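Example 3.
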Amino acid sequence: MTTRAAAQARVDQIQAFQRELGLLQSDGVLQLPPDRLQAIQSYHATLTRELAESFDVDSDTRGRQLSWGMRIASFLGALSLAASVFFLFYRFWGQMYVTTQVTILVATPLLALCFTSWLGTRDSTGYFTKLAALVTICCFVLNVSMLGQIFNITPSPNALLAWAAFAAILAYGMEMKLLLVAAILCLVTYIAARFGTWGGAYWINFGERPENFLPAAAALLLVPRFIDHGRFDGFATTYRVSGLLTLFGPILVLANWGNGSYLLLDPALVEGGYQVLGFLLAGVTIWLGIRSGYPHVVNTGVSFFVVLLFTKFYDWWWEIMPKYLFFLVVGLTAVLLLFVFRRLRSFGRTVTAEVA
Amino acid sequence: MTAWYRRWPLVSGIALIVITNAVALGGVMYNRSGEPESTLTLTQRELALPYRYEETSENTGLSLSVFWRVEPPEDRDDEPSYGFRYGGEPAWLDGAKLEELGIRVRARAPRNVDGISNSRGLPVDVWLVLEMDGPAYKRLLERTCNRASWNQEARDACTREKNEASRLFVVDAGLDRHALRAKYPETTTHAIVRGQIEATRVTDASTSKVTGHISGVSVDEIQVPVALRAPLGPDPSVRWDARNEKPFVATVAFGRRHEPWIVKLSSPSKR
């Protein structure tokens, strides 16, 4: 067992087994000889203790709740420390000579990276390493952006590629999903900016043509398809969900703002086209999610479908309907959707049973 | 193998930081190597100190905002001009010039029943020519002061144009910086910089008109190193309505990559 996630999964499995065994015994379905039962309990207790010592896994509900608290504290602490580093430099950089500024800017991410790497070998929980890694990324972002300001360098999207690569190195090296999200955000922005410039525009204006994000969405969705992420817990899920959000976000915008499209058609036609495409893609996503057994894909598809549907309801009926009628229609639609999703859930169970 | 597996994030991260900084600083060294591509002498009229309300105690860095202007068409003489930086529609940026720059805005199909469509293109990266205290400024000064007899407001505009307004004008644009340099060979009055132009096409039932608009220059703020700050005093900020409060003269060089930096900063009396 090499990762904390795998260790936690094993502990969860042991606890589930013990609960089910208790029920089977109380219902009289299974009666194990006391010595066998004792051997199993002893083995599980030793294994749980070892895993808790090695990976700091949560062996009970209270521990799990505290873990969530630690995660939130670690994230907020990382954000605060990153902001502190940023404002510390801003507070004093105007009093430094250029050589000193550059030395500090280059040395800070190097030192922070060395510290994070050292901490990673000693911090079994990963919370402190995550915190240090986020501060390291902030130092590198500060490094590149401040060099640009100090030397009046022409802004370029290439900095985003460097930040994405750095965040990805830390994400894969430390096996941290949060850093992977940071890497994906930078990469998506870089790809969209590049496609924006190939479309003939200045790179900073990439957001004004939401279609620039679609190639990045395709790339993200293809990554887990062709690269095995079995060793990295939750990475494939992160790629799929990020890819779907990068796909559905621009479609949602274009379904309401046809003027933002590259297509030189009547904006109303563009909006209508993207509305149809949005509903179709949401349907296909839900179907693919059920077929492949990816609940996160299904949930993302359903969420997008509901958001797109309700934004269109607002567009179509908010002005012309009395408010009580509008909310009645929305409520009835929600009830209808519940029926549809219940059918889909039973379809999902059937598919799972067939696969099993 | 195990040692490498444990160390690869550290080694790759260090390599990435070193390479990124080497590329950025190498670019700066290249930009500032050899003779500058152009060197302009600018004053507080063209390089604005931060306004007092903008100043925060959190940021101790000091940057000067580049106040560039354009010469508007004569039919807009009655519009007020305060000599501040703003996006502008210069007279020379007509349909033919936009065509030459490869900036085309195709008419989007009309949305309204009246048949009017307004298609805005996105800003396009081009080379811009900045002219300091040249014919464009002199023409605009003459036009402004010719109206001084109209009323007090026109007289104020003339005074402001003479004493306060920026004399840095965007006078041309192109895709080939060498061709622009050949056309404007004077390197002490003309600098070539990266900037953006956008175009809008307004189409109705019978006509279709394209207008060009300079939306910005890529580097619109220039940092003042601490070693050059002495002439600006301990508090370099100014009131928004008193840009001449702290006069200075700055020698700004534009390097091989057309990126600017301040070579010298002095009080006007010490030039």
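Chain A has a mean pLDDT of 88. DSSP finds twelve helices and no strands in chain A.
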